[in-house]
Design goal:
By secondary structure, the chain is an all-beta fold. Strands 2, 4, 5, 6, 9, 10 and 11 form a seven-stranded mixed sheet that branches. It has a four-stranded antiparallel sheet with strand order 1-3-8-7, with no helix packed on it.
């Protein structure tokens, strides 16, 4: 049974950093592409980043390029999203999902809230 559990969200000031974690079970994170997307109230879902299954290639939305970094630890079966230089417009619930990249995903977790504000 595929399960994804996100954690690491919270309240941070603009310019701050957070690292989100996505613990996977029921499959190995090196089997499929895994992505992050976010959803803010009243806005459409937005793909943020994804990492490939094979060579670890990474992809980013223009809105986060240069600020966010996706990575994975196969031994821990966990995918991370390091978020730096956070802006108020990054405020959203963040979800990790699989399979695919900037796709309509079949599986995603319960999400973790990220709030960027003073």
């Amino acid at each position: 049974q595929v399960q994804l559990v996100e954690s690491g969200g919270g309240l941070v000031q603009p310019g701050g950093s957070l690292r989100l974690s996505c613990a996977a079970s029921g499959f190995s994170v090196d089997m499929y592409y895994i992505g992050w997307f976010r959803q803010a109230p009243g806005k459409e879902r937005e793909g943020v980043s994804c990492i490939s299954s094979s060579n670890g290639s990474t992809y980013y939305a223009d809105s986060v390029k240069g600020r966010f970094t996706i990575s994975k630890d196969i031994a821990k079966n966990t995918v991370y999203l390091q978020m730096n230089s956070l802006k108020p417009e990054d405020t959203a619930v963040y979800y990790c999902a699989t399979p695919g990249c900037f796709d309509e995903y079949d599986y995603y977790g319960q999400g973790t809230q990220v709030t960027v504000n003073y």
